[in-house]
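Recap from last week: sequence in, structure out.
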Amino acid sequence: MTFIAAKWTVEDYHQMIAAGILRDRQVELLKGEIVQMSPEGEPHAYCSHEAGKYLTLLLGECVEVRQAKPITLPNDSEPEPDLAIVQPLGRDYREHHPYVENIFWVIEYSNTTLEKDLEIKSKIYAEAGIKEYWVVNLKKLHLIVFRDPLDGDYATKFTLTAGTIQPIAFSDVSVLVERIINK
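Predicted structure tokens:
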């Protein structure tokens, strides 16, 4: 016997949310599947919050740093990255979550979900065309940077533990790696 999982569209997912079907559940939509999200431990919550404050101060009014809020992707995905650095569109976000064209880059903080963030989410973000994706490995305290989406994966991947990094969208800005990984 063959089992086929039901796939959901973003529209289906929004209807379930509006109907209260997913109330009190920590879930996100990944490639048409509703996936349980892991609860945040203290290091995860602290590090992502502090990095969000830092990036807001560093980048100022030219971005909005959304913390643990959905983004809508064209591959039937609506993940909730820990940080999404997006265009500051104000009231437009009352009508829709940020789309790919609104996103500068996303950051995930990972402790127990490292495999999901490095394998599954990196491919979802690359397939959608997000130009840059960062994963903070909270166990090893390093930053894994994915860039240059190509054929459903990222062509460039490197790891940093210190120093600075210039985001693709803001090549004139130096981000302190230590402030992102919160050593």
